[in-house]
TrEMBL record:
Function, in words: Part of the tripartite ATP-independent periplasmic (TRAP) transport system.
Membrane topology value: Multi-pass membrane protein
Protein name per UniProt: TRAP transporter large permease protein
Gene Ontology MF annotations: transmembrane transporter activity
Keywords assigned: Cell inner membrane, Cell membrane, Membrane, Transmembrane, Transmembrane helix, Transport
One GO cellular component term: plasma membrane
Keyword Hydrolase attached: no
Main location as per UniProt: membrane
Family: Belongs to the TRAP transporter large permease family.
Lineage: Bacteria, Pseudomonadati, Pseudomonadota, Alphaproteobacteria, Rhodospirillales
Length: 463
């Protein structure tokens, strides 16, 4: 009876242990891998796990993560984003957009949103994006008497777009976990990412139109006109746009793999720093160190999650999840909504890396077996399993946008508060992000109800 009980419920205890130990402050990679190893030994004590299986974990890490050429793109995208932060590209871009939108209600806030969208398409490093935009934009917004909640909410939400808009590190990881094409995921995420940016833009414009005191316009005396404005656009707007075309265009046109395009992006970012005269030894050293540390942290998490997921499956975790889902008596849509709710709630407490590495391998097989009827049929063609998983991955990605903004562990809020002026209170930040979280939920509902938002581009361009 004991063996039967352990065999059926050990995976559930693994999740419970993870939920408790993640709050101890220990590195998440140690927690995930430690729980996997500990439950492996407990499984040995109850004859539901064998010691020889630990050797399978090593081969999975080495033969899966370490030899996956797509994963090589991750450290190069990290390098690209870090170098762009140091090169002054973002600072010049914000100034240019501010001049172009100076007569539009909420022009500076809209400039921050557009800059977040453009920078998202060049880097997927959320911490760097939020810190950079806070340092650049928030002091200017405060000097111009912007509402603190509107200013902080705009910066936090716009800075997180990089996790969804390609080339996104999260999408590269998802493609590996779901065994779907990273090119398909990149294409599928473009419209949902731009949809979120559009929702932010409409919200800011309408709110500032109704209440102009929230965002006073730029004084005419500070504006740039004529030839000076054209030169500013050539110097500040075109370089990041060119880099986006270079990286994403080469992938979508089939000229380069994501890994090769990441290398091109890294070289392009270095070239921009050289042109701006910022490519000095201290800068290059700092960029390389930060890129190496961030990459090492991510790959340590990948290895830890491999340990956890292998032991979880070996102890019958997949069967337990399927039994629980089937026992709930929910239909396909009920199961999907339940999973989206679980991901949303997990976002209050976990980072996107932990949620992705834990949730996707467990729930993706369940989603792949569900029948959504003709809802996912695009152009009269029946959806394949790969298209279902692509749609599901985009839904999770949009959902995970909220994990950066929801307290108590919204990392974008921590980044923002850490570098914001002391006059900005955490209450103002929390108040500012509420409308943007609601907009993200609206975006999730739209992609769920209109799957062509995610599937049209990969179906059309890769057919």
């Amino acid at each position: 009876m004991d063996n039967f009980y352990i065999e059926d419920w050990f995976p559930l205890f693994m999740f419970a242990s993870l939920g408790i130990l993640v709050f101890t402050g220990l590195p998440v990679a140690f927690v995930i891998s430690g729980i996997g190893i500990a439950f492996g030994f407990l499984g040995m004590a109850y004859d539901v796990f064998s010691f020889i299986e630990f050797f399978n974990i090593v081969s999975r890490i080495w033969g899966g993560i370490s030899e996956n050429m797509v994963m090589v793109a991750v450290p190069m995208f990290i390098y690209m984003g870090t170098m762009l932060e140091k090169s002054g590209v973002a600072e010049d871009l914000l100034e240019c957009l501010n001049m172009l939108l100076r007569k539009v209600p909420g022009g500076l806030a809209l400039s921050v949103t557009l800059m977040g969208t453009i920078m998202a398409a060049t880097t997927g490093i959320i911490g760097a994006s939020v810190v950079m935009m806070t340092l650049l934009a928030l002091p200017v917004m405060m000097r111009r008497n912007y509402d603190p909640s509107l200013a902080t909410g705009t910066i936090a939400a716009s800075g997180t777009l990089g996790i969804l808009i390609p080339p996104s590190i999260m999408l590269v990881l998802m493609s590996d976990l779901l065994s779907v094409s990273v090119g398909n995921l990149f294409l599928a995420a473009i419209i949902p990412g731009l949809l979120l940016a559009s929702l932010y833009t409409v919200y800011i414009f309408v709110r500032c139109q109704l209440n102009p005191s929230l965002a006073p316009p730029l004084p005419e005396g500070e504006a740039v006109h004529g030839k000076d404005l054209v030169m500013m656009m050539l110097r500040s707007f075109l370089p990041p746009v060119f880099l986006i075309v270079l990286v994403l265009g080469s992938i979508f046109a089939g000229f380069a793999t994501p890994t090769e395009a990441a290398g091109v992006g890294a070289v392009g970012a270095t070239f921009l720093a050289l042109v701006k005269g910022r490519l000095k030894w201290p800068v290059l050293k700092d960029v390389c160190e930060r890129s190496a540390l961030t990459g090492a942290m991510l790959f340590f998490l990948f290895a830890g999650a491999t340990v956890f997921s292998y032991v979880f499956r070996s102890l019958g975790g997949d069967d337990l999840v399927i039994d629980l889902v089937e026992g709930a008596g929910l239909g396909p849509w009920g199961i999907l909504l339940l999973l989206m709710l679980i991901v949303f709630i997990l976002g209050f407490f976990f980072d996107w890396v932990e949620i992705t590495l834990i949730v996707l391998p467990i729930f993706a097989p369940v989603i792949a077996q569900l029948d959504f009827g003709h809802h996912l049929d695009i152009g009269g063609l029946e959806a394949t399993e790969a298209q279902v998983l692509t749609w599901f991955a985009v839904l999770v990605a949009v959902n995970l946008q909220t994990s950066f903004l929801t307290p108590p562990f919204g990392f974008a809020l921590f980044y923002l508060k850490g570098v914001a002026p002391k006059s900005i209170t955490i209450q103002q930040i929390y108040k500012g992000i509420i409308p943007f979280v609601l907009l993200q939920v609206l975006g999730l509902i739209l992609v769920m109800y209109f799957p062509e938002l995610a599937l049209w581009m990969p179906n059309t361009l890769l057919e």
